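Many introductory courses stop at the sequence. We go one step further.
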Amino acid sequence: MSQPKPILYYDDRSPPVRSCLMLIKLLDIDVELRFVDLFKGEQFQKDFLAINPQHSVPTLVHDDLVLTDSHAILIHLAEKFDEGGSLWPKEYVPRMKVLNLLLFECSFLFRRDSDFMSAIVRQGFAHVDVAHHERKLTEAYGIMEGYLEKSNYMAGEQLTLADFSLVTTLSTVNLMFPLTRFPRLQHWFTAMQQLDAYEANCSGLEKLRQTMEAIGNFQFPSSSSSSSVGEVGP
């Protein structure tokens, strides 16, 4: 008997959603996608709240398992579908390095990105203290630049879940605050963009750009290049 395929509730304007979509594309996982429009409040519909009272995306339903955090979803999908086992290393120390970067993404980088995007939604861009958010987010850039002093990828010398989690949030922040002062980070970002799986980030990133510019009545400085290169859930 075949196993039921995972169901991913998503809005690809969300950076955490896009990290899951990138991994799904990389591992060629057969997933049923169900769109939840965050900007129309569909996450508060009764049927979705019954699945995820946290009313956030991504949400993954796989058999009897319900996961409501992108990092848990990434780990689950890697454990189930990454036959090589390199994305979520089996060895303890490399695995803890990846976990450390996943927690950095959710507690530091994404939190600061979310604060900035939420301020635009609540206040309108004209009333946002952009300089304050730039200081907070470029501090995160500096930390990531430091991680890359010792390795080519965020958690070591091979591609891991940490890179997927970080790159989608970074691509969102990069719309407003380009990486030009951080050469290692820029090199890593360029390398990530060369992955076939990065295509899963592009459409949602562009949709987020358009949505935020419409809501905030402004234009991101990197708008002209964003299509070649949200908010919303951990």
